[in-house]
Design brief:
- The protein is mainly β and 232 residues long.
- Helix content is 7%, strand content 56%.
- Strands 1, 3, 4, 5, 6, 7, 8, 10, 11, 12, 13, 14 and 15 form a 13-stranded antiparallel β-sheet that branches. Strands 2-9 form a two-stranded antiparallel sheet.
- The two termini are 25 Å apart.
């Protein structure tokens, strides 16, 4: 499910303004304080449900836009096992002109939710080891590592090119919304730090996606460079 690794391939941190053909719930207008959120539902809305997103880089003078389209593919075979697949197409535009396009398929099963890896049009082949289950509900302040992902140059799995761990966290945004974040580590195969990425979705009490903020952090000699994408 290494959406973050795919984004790193095209050197982007992302943020989505989400239009989904499954239900997206508007924020609660009351002053009720919500302390628990259905993070499993939110995870499925992010990675497995049909949606089209438009993303814009903060403080970008070139009007860079990333369009993301997720299309469920149904039953598929991955790494000699049956799974569900969801295709994600990433299209990067500058001033309306297409610069790059990356197409990936994430493989997963439901009940319980488990991610197995991804393939993409660069030939890369990822095998994910889900080290802990995503809980159905989580409380503000909860967090956990849940995936270790190995990325190979192709499906032969002969050449390992990167390895990551992923964790999730849940932090309060407002009284009735929370930031559900997927955090990717640096490439563990490298001796030098190469940066991390956090992809955070503002969710409501039903796990609906409201907005997104993603931060791509890269080390510099005099500090850290951060590229931030925010919802429209």
């Amino acid at each position: 499910m290494k959406v973050l690794a795919l984004i790193a391939v095209v050197a982007l941190g992302l943020s989505a303004c989400t239009t989904m053909n499954n239900d997206v719930i508007t924020p609660n207008k009351s002053n009720q304080i919500v302390t628990q959120y259905p993070v499993e539902t939110a995870l499925l809305n992010i990675y497995t449900k049909a949606r089209t997103d438009t993303l814009i880089q903060a403080n970008d003078n070139q009007n860079t836009v990333l369009e993301i389209k997720v299309v469920p593919k149904g039953k598929m075979t991955f790494n000699n096992q049956q799974a569900q697949g969801a295709e994600t197409a990433y299209t990067i535009k500058s001033d309306g002109i297409i610069d790059q396009q990356l197409i990936s398929i994430n493989y997963y099963t439901l009940n319980p939710v488990k991610f197995y890896g991804f393939t993409n049009n660069l030939g890369e082949y990822s095998v994910a080891n889900q080290t802990s289950d995503m809980p159905k509900m989580a409380t503000i302040g909860d967090s956990s590592e849940f995936i270790t992902e190995s990325v190979y140059s192709d499906s032969s799995q002969d050449k390992l090119i990167s390895k990551y761990t992923q964790s999730w966290s849940l932090k309060r945004a407002t009284n009735d919304t929370a930031w559900f974040c997927i955090n990717a580590s640096e490439n563990l195969l490298l001796n030098d730090a190469n940066g991390t990425m956090s992809e955070c979705y503002n969710i409501n009490a039903k796990g609906g996606l409201l907005s997104t903020k993603v931060v791509d952090s890269s080390p510099l000699e005099d500090g850290v460079k951060r590229i931030i994408y925010n919802s429209l």
